[in-house]
Structures are given as C-alpha cells and as structure tokens.
Amino acid sequence: MRAEATPPPASASASALPAPSPAPAAADRAAFLQLMWLASPALPIGGFSYSEVLESAIERTGLHSMPDVSAWLQDQLQLALARADMALVAQAIAAWRLADPDRVCALNDWVLQTRESSELRLQTEQMGRSMMDWLRNQHEGNPDVLALTRTCASPTYPVAFALAASITHAPVVDCLSSFAFGWAENMVQAAVKAVPLGQSAGQRILADLVRRIPQAVTEALAHDDDTRQAFAPMLAILSAQHETQYSRLFRS
After folding, report:
1. CB under 8 Å to 151, separation ≥6 — which residues?
2. CA–CA separation, 36 and 94 (whole Å)
3. Which of 8, 20, 87, 199 allows an S-S link to 223, with CB 3.0 to 4.6 Å?
4. Which residues have a Cβ under 8 Å from the Cβ of 177 and sit 6 or more positions away?
5. Ramachandran sector of residue 17 (left: φ over 0; alpha: ψ -120 to 50; beta: rest)
6. Domains plus CATH for the chain?
7. C-beta of residue 86 within 8 angstroms of C-beta of residue 220
C-alpha cells in the first residue's frame, strides 16, 4: 500500500500570516474613525478647490506624466509639508491639549507669515475658517469647544486641523498621518484632473506617497521652533504665477 501524505502542521500553513493584533479599545476605534473623517475629501472645508501650486507646476515645469507628478509630490511632502505644516500641527496639538491660547495664536501667526502669495494665504484662511465652522456645527452643544474655535481671529488650516485632531485624543503620530493623507489624496485628485491622469495612475501616485508618509511624520515630530521651516521658493513663485494663469481649474 502507498502511504498517505501527511498534512503539514497547522503552524506551518499559517506561518505566512502575522498573528492577529489585540482588538483595539472602543475609544481607540472611535478616535481612528474621527481621524479618517478629518482626512476625507468629503469634509466640507473646500480643499478640493485648490491644487496647492500643482496646476501651475503642470503648466510651467512640464509635469505631464505619472512618474513626474509622483516625484514632485514626494519632494513637496518631504521638503515642504514635513518641515513646516506637519511639524506645526504636532506643536499645535500639544498647545490645544495644554489649553495654551497664547502658544496657539503664536503658531497661527507663524503660518500666516509663511504664506508667500495671496493664493496660499487665501487657502489656509478659508480652509481654517471652514474647519472651525464645521467644528462649531459638530459640537454646538459644547461651550468649551465653541470657545476654542474662536481662540484666533483668523484661524489657519493647520491650526484648525490641530484643534479637530486634539479633540479625538488620538496619538499625535496618528493625527499627523491623517493630516498628511488628507493632503496627499487632495493632491492626487488635483493631478488626475489637471494633467490629466487616469484613476489607476492616480492610485499609483497615492501609493508612493503613502509609503513615504511615516518617514515624513517622524521628521515632523523631530522639529521644534528652531528647526521648523517654510522655505520652498519655487512653490511661492509658481503660486504667484498661478494667480494670472490663463486657464485654471483650481482656485487662486
């Protein structure tokens, strides 16, 4: 008789799969869902109407392919977002949680001072106001939150996002990941419309950005007031040029 094959041990057949993680607590799940909500392009704060200079870069620097756009956005994530807005969001979350309005307003002033064109300043002020309006609508029965939304006379988007994220009680690392992913998804949608690109190409760009977001978060957390910086001359020049660009899909 031919011997029957012995089935492999159960542990061998399952060795390729990681062990299941412990189920997160309900509060952690709620915070995670709130951060997904803040990163959603459906959030009514107007982010979809801006290309953050990408439309001008497509017109003037020849970003006409998926690899070119992907490389541009990866550089923008590393050289601009991680060193400036993401670093500031982390610091603003700490200030909101410590109930330090002077620090919050100082950080807000820094954002306004680093917007080098009227377009970039318009975007951060409009999205900041809209985020505060959204928070007031979501927390209309909470006088403490309503008071916080009026801390700064002209709230900027990074500072307003930091307030919304701080309310979730999620770890700062997760808050920054949400902020970066919301930016990445909006930029990819802008590229799909403005280049134009297909949806599959857009998803490949988004995948490239997602792989780099953890490192950007790590870099942002390493910055303090002395090392945080907003130095991207080409973005400022292209933004100013976008204001007079003949054909535009996005707001300027």
Report:
1. 101, 104, 105
2. 20
3. 87
4. 35, 213, 214, 217
5. beta
6. 66-242 (1.10.4190.10)
7. yes
Say how far apart CA 62 and CA 77 lie, in whole Å. 19
Report the alpha-carbon distance of residue 167 to residue 30 in Å, rounded.
11
| pLDDT averaged per 10 residues in sequence order, the chain, 252 residues | 50 51 75 95 89 86 92 95 98 98 98 93 95 96 96 97 97 98 95 93 97 98 96 88 70 56
Token pair of 200 as six digits:
């599959």
Rounded to whole angstroms, how far apart are CA atoms 126 and 157? Answer: 8
CB neighbour burial string for 105-132, b if at least 16 within 10 angstroms, e if fewer: bebbebbbebbbbebbbebbbbbbbbbb
As given in the structure block, the two tokens for residue 93 are 């979350």
Q: Please, are residues 116 and 139 in contact by the beta-carbon 8 Å criterion?
A: no
Distance between CA atoms of residues 108 and 163, nearest Å: 12
Cα-Cα-Cα-Cα dihedral sign, residues 11, 17, 21, 26:
negative
**Amino acid occupying residue 241:** Q
pTM over 0.90: no
> pLDDT tens digit string along 77-131?
999 999 999 999 999 999 999 999 999 999 999 999 999 999 999 999 999 999 9
Nearest to 138 by CA among 33, 25, 34: 34
Rounded to whole angstroms, what are the CA distances from 134 to 69, 137, 149?
32, 5, 10
